[in-house]
Amino acid sequence: MMVLFCISDLRKGGAEKVLTALCTHAGGVYTPRVVALTGGWYERVLADAGIRVDVLRPAGASWFSAVRRLRALAANTGDIDCIYGFLPLGGCIGAAIKWRTGKPLLYAIRSSLRYFGLMKQPVRWLLHLISLQSADASTVNSPAVKQHLRTRKPVHIILNGVEAPPPDRCEDDSVRREFFPDDKRAYVVSVCSLRPPRKPSTLLDVAATMREVGFVLVGDGVYLPRLKRRVESEGLSNVALAGFRENVWPFLRYAQAFVLLTDHEGFPNSVLEAMVMGLPVVISDIPEVRGVLTPGNRCALVKNRDIAGIAAAIMRTREAGPHADARKAPAADAFSMAAMVRETASILGRVADGG
Predict the structure, then answer these.
(1) DSSP string for 234-301
(2) What CATH class is the domain 2-160+336-352?
(3) Looking at domain 167-334, which of 2.60.40.10, 3.40.50.2000, 1.10.760.10, 3.30.365.10 is its CATH number?
(4) What is the pTM assigned to this prediction?
(5) Per-residue confidence at 327, pLDDT binned at 50, 70, 90?
């Protein structure tokens, strides 16, 4: 089965990471091909894996040329069995190809619609409606996202999956020396793109009240320059900003707990990666997460504005410490890459067969 994955861009983001994982871990279950409006970090990863990537609007190209490339691409999709559009714009790219070819379309919704309604983000909302109405079926990554959909077409839940890394990917002496230098100090790590809806500034508020704990923020985005200025101006010597890293596993390997503060998500990959590594997690109490994770001594759900509550949760989960054997951590089976690929292939097959 040949699947055409469509997405707006291939930058450093969660949806892009999931799409790349579905392509690079297909293992012959289906044959992936990717089309993106613009390129980005994951374009190289896909190309290195031997996956064909068509970029409609390369750097410097016009919108007119992008439309011409899309028409040419649609005219050469005879071997495609199904289209899988990610996010509203990716769904619209898939819809345009479907209209010209008649190929079935599956639409992936990665975040709750209540956060980009008609009055908040009208263009994105319109693109979403076009994608939803054009698709033969849709997928979501948490039960809470599905609750806000209004459609009579099938909606399938596919939980994000991650693959436990090989041991050599988890060890990096340069990372340990630069970001985790004190063996007697506890370290907390946060891995996310530093842009809305994430709340890294709130995490700095927490760090200011916990000077004995080291905080390492891994990620890039529009918030990074102001975070750097704040760390310097406030003398937050216990905070380190690592920027974007292709390999985040060493950061999870050397930390004692994981934190993610956010206004909304679909379901964050970074939390699953932390859980697969056996780390206890502290995450914002949002519906998309509440329906999947169960609070306990290894998982705490917190309110974004409750600085004292977040600090207490970090201390509580940190005391639990990493799982003695990450391979036996519950998330290693519950959110496996193999399960995500298997479920995706099953749904794509049904859509391709008209089911």
Answers:
(1) TT-TTEEEEE--S--HHHHHH-SEEEE-BS--S--HHHHHHHHTT--EEEE--HHHHTT---BTTEEE
(2) alpha beta
(3) 3.40.50.2000
(4) 0.86
(5) very low
